[in-house]
Design goal:
Strand content: under 5%
Helix content: 55-70%
Distance between the termini: 35 Å
Structural class: mainly alpha
Order of helices and strands: HHHHHHHHHHHHHHHHHHHHH
Radius of gyration: 25 Å
Length: about 500
């Protein structure tokens, strides 16, 4: 196996021997079989098929072209699109589900985790450098907070742009470019010669980092079997790890200022280190791991043979078998030489993205009173959490630096040590969330409601006493429940 891999290599199914099996001999994944059996039972409870091969005698077997067509028709109609491309996309989804979880998926879990890690690494990195920027460029503590505003402006642009761009230029290119931009501008921040320049560089950095969550999450989900859906919640564990790394680096540099490092050097060393870590993650993604392009993207661009090869490649890496061939795709969705709507133009892709915000898509969220209430509550949670997180976490180092009445001014070492302790305590939260969402009578609703309530209580208690030990205790507990909440919310 070569030490470096070609990150832009195109594939052919012939590269992966001994992975193809006939459809009638395929072993459908347990989750797919169960879904088919439930569907059969709902359609006719008195008839069934105990071998999981497609329901009653009056129905086609899932292990036949007719059976696949039946499944695909139902899925395509439910999705709101019924073109040849959409039907073939459903077939590819089913092929990936049947391969199941394996080595490739776990590697992708780690590499997508890098994106989540980088996202919070820099959110905290900006917060941790605010005192140093204020000192270096003689900017007031109030005005320097606009640095965070510049970063979030970049995040908004990045999240909006890369979500659509990844469907136009390809997920693989977007997956690597977002992290490259974050690493590049992260390194350049350390060379900023004015506060305005630093804000501009942080905004550019945000434009790269902002694409990590939508692109990485979508790519991971595309290759994730339904039966392993809990890993999407587990992916959020990389979020507090990013905060932990940022806090430890800042403690090592800014926490030692001005005794070991001057104020104007400490924050530069911090951003330089964070930039180097981000760039190292990009190198790992780009050179040491071969990411397969999204098979749906390839299909949308009329590259059907390559999309089949990607599924074969995933099966090969996972040491599994697959039944997917071009002939099966053509049998279900039509031959590209005969049937139109085999691929999507750039205009079609943009139109589909924008249609997600149309009244036809949003209207059903308010179809019943219960749905309307649930939708409003979820939107309210996202809005308030979106406001609360930066208002607290992005300025926490400044809050911890403010001495209460009759309290001595804490040293830099104490401030950044406490921040690092808070980050450590928060890490287990995402791991616990992954398990509590599947506990009976608790689930996602109970987990998120409890974690959100306790996070809010801890924030109120944080303001009661100016004592640094008291504040440390409540920031630790708040960080723990906050990460539980985020783990459920993002999944």
């Amino acid at each position: 196996m070569p030490f470096f891999v070609n990150p832009l290599k195109k594939h052919d199914a012939s590269e992966y021997p001994n992975v193809l099996v006939p459809l009638h001999d395929a072993q459908r994944h347990a989750s797919v079989v169960q879904a088919n059996m439930l569907k059969s039972a709902e359609s006719d409870p008195e008839k069934g098929d105990n071998d999981g091969r497609g329901g009653s005698e009056d129905q086609y077997s899932s292990y036949s072209i007719e059976g696949l067509k039946s499944e695909v028709e139902d899925s395509a109609i439910a999705g709101g699109h019924d073109s040849a491309y959409d039907k073939k996309s459903v077939v590819i989804n089913k092929a990936i589900q049947d391969i199941g979880m394996g080595r490739y998926n776990w590697q992708l879990f780690v590499l997508c985790g890098f994106g989540w890690l980088a996202d919070n690494l820099w959110l905290q990195g900006v917060a941790l450098t605010l005192p140093g920027l204020s000192e270096t460029f003689d900017v007031s503590e109030t005005k320097v907070r606009y640095t965070t505003c510049a970063t979030f402006a970049g995040l908004c642009v990045g999240a909006s742009f890369w979500g659509i761009a990844s469907d136009i230029i390809g997920r693989r290119l977007a997956f690597n470019t977002t992290l490259f931009l974050a690493g590049l501008f992260g390194l350049l921040v350390a060379a900023g010669q004015s506060w305005i320049a630093v804000c501009g560089l942080y905004a550019a950095l945000g434009a790269g980092v902002g694409g990590n969550l939508p692109v990485d999450g979508a790519l991971f989900l595309e290759f994730l079997p339904f039966a392993s859906g809990g890993l999407l919640t587990m992916l959020s564990v990389w979020w507090p790890i990013g905060q932990l790394i940022a806090s430890l680096v800042a403690w090592g540099f800014i926490g030692q200022a001005p005794n070991v490092y001057p104020h104007d050097k400490a924050w530069r060393y911090t951003t330089l280190t964070l930039g180097a870590i981000t760039f190292l993650m990009f190198i790992c993604r780009f050179f040491f791991f071969h990411l397969f392009e999204s098979p749906k993207f390839l299909l949308s661009r009329g590259r059907q043979a390559e999309s089949v090869a990607v599924v074969h490649g995933v099966a090969y890496k996972n040491k599994r078998k697959t039944w997917l061939t071009e002939d099966i795709l053509n049998a279900v969705g039509g031959d590209p030489a005969i049937v139109d709507n085999q691929k999507l133009s750039t205009k079609d892709i943009v139109r589909r993205q924008l249609s997600k915000f149309s009244s036809e898509r949003i209207g059903p969220l308010f179809a019943t009173r219960q749905l309307a209430l649930t939708t409003c509550l979820i939107w309210f949670c996202w809005t308030t959490i979106g406001m609360g997180y930066p208002l607290f976490n992005a300025f926490l180092p400044q809050y911890l630096a403010q001495p209460g009445k009759g309290q001595p001014t804490p040293s830099n070492a104490t401030i950044y040590r406490n921040y690092a302790i808070t980050s450590i305590v928060g890490v287990p939260g995402s791991i616990i969330a992954c398990y509590t969402v599947d506990i009976k009578y608790i689930g996602r609703k109970g987990t998120m409601a409890t974690a959100t309530l306790l996070s809010g209580i801890m924030l109120f208690l944080f303001t009661i006493s100016p004592d640094s030990n008291y504040q440390l205790a409540f920031t630790c507990v708040e960080a723990f429940f906050q990460n539980i909440m985020y783990g459920v919310l993002y999944a």
